[in-house]
Amino acid sequence: MPWQQLKLDTAAADAEALAALLDELGAAAVTLEDAADQPLFEPAPGSTPLWDRTRITALFDAEEDLPAIVANLSGRAEKPLGDWRIEPLREEDWERVWMERFVPLRFGRRLWVCPSWHTPPDPSAVNLLLDPGLAFGTGTHATTGMCLEWLDARLQPRQSCVDFGCGSGILGVAACLLGAKVVWSVDIDAQAVQATDANAERNAVSGCVRTGRPEDLPSLAVEVVLANILAGPLIDLSERIAHLAEPGGWIVLSGILSEQADEVIEAYAPSVALQPWRERDGWVCLEGRRGPQ
Fold it and tell me: Where are the beta strands (DSSP E) in the chain?
């Protein structure tokens, strides 16, 4: 499949928000890199510092109207866009660069996420072998990483889960590897469902992961609901997402910019008292238990 990429230079403070908007506008993948040859020395553990001038590269299908997407992005961004350009990209070039950048990562005490073409660094750990394909979610972004850390720290054996907006399936597969009884992994994107099925099979948890679209969910109430999407959909779907959890069940929400947290917390207040689990790089992951009603 032919590809094209949008390259956009911006200030570090604006990079994460613009990357999230590009995800929402249909980018198959978004990467951040140095735009001015600036070294980063000894970042603090667990931090992901950005360069003062950061280059965002967003990958799109060659059929997408990128000037229209840039116009949409410009209208939704808080500040005027910096310099941008569009470049064609052959699929094999993208795959090679992407594979070079995706390396094994550790989340919490037990869990490693390893590209399917890498040997796990710690064979005795819980190793999730991942090939996201065109679906979002490798653990490299703070929003996904915080959810993986939550699962490592909080998930109990034999619990049931919903992963609402599953992307690559990384959260549902991780939950199964960490002891979940069953995970319903749902997404509106057919490529995400396909990637989730493939990653569940790769990790020998196909019997634990059940995939489909959100409307395919049966009437259920589970012990853990995970939703790593964006603040807007989380707010719009707050009643639906909250009621997927049983009374006393966990609700874990991510994909939320720090300044959006209060609005999300307010939307869920009738059912669950959310509070920050972790905050990283301008993003926050919220957790809470559903009330008795």
Answer: 3-11, 29-34, 53-61, 84-89, 105-107, 111-115, 126-130, 160-164, 182-186, 209-212, 222-228, 245-257, 275-280, 283-289
What is residue 26's DSSP assignment?
T
* pLDDT of residue 254 exceeding 70: yes
Q: pTM of the full predicted structure?
A: 0.68
Identity of residue 36: A
* pLDDT cut 70: percent of the chain above it: 85
Mind listing the pLDDT tens digit for each residue in 200-218?
A: 999 999 999 999 999 989 8
Average pLDDT, the chain: 84
Q: Distances in Å between the alpha carbon of 232 and those of 4, 78, 182, 235?
A: 27, 16, 28, 5
- 278: its two tokens: 């972790």
Task: Give the Å distances, CA to CA, from 172 to 82, 144, 146.
Answer: 37, 12, 14
Q: How confident is the model at residue 162 (pLDDT cuts 50, 70, 90)?
A: very high
81-100 in b/e burial notation, b at 16+ Cβ within 10 A? ebebeeeebeeeebeeeeee
Work out the widest C-alpha separation in the chain, in whole angstroms.
55
Residues 6+ apart with CB under 8 A from 284: 254, 256, 257, 258, 261, 276, 278
**Per-residue pLDDT tens for 50-61?**
445 788 888 888
**Antiparallel, parallel or unpaired: β 84-89 and 3-11:** antiparallel
d(CA 189, CA 23): 13
Task: Enumerate domains of the chain plus CATH numbers.
Answer: 3-37+48-99 (3.30.70.120), 135-289 (3.40.50.150)
CA–CA gap between residue 210 and residue 212 (Å, rounded): 7
> Is the distance from CB of 167 to CB of 100 less than 8 angstroms?
no
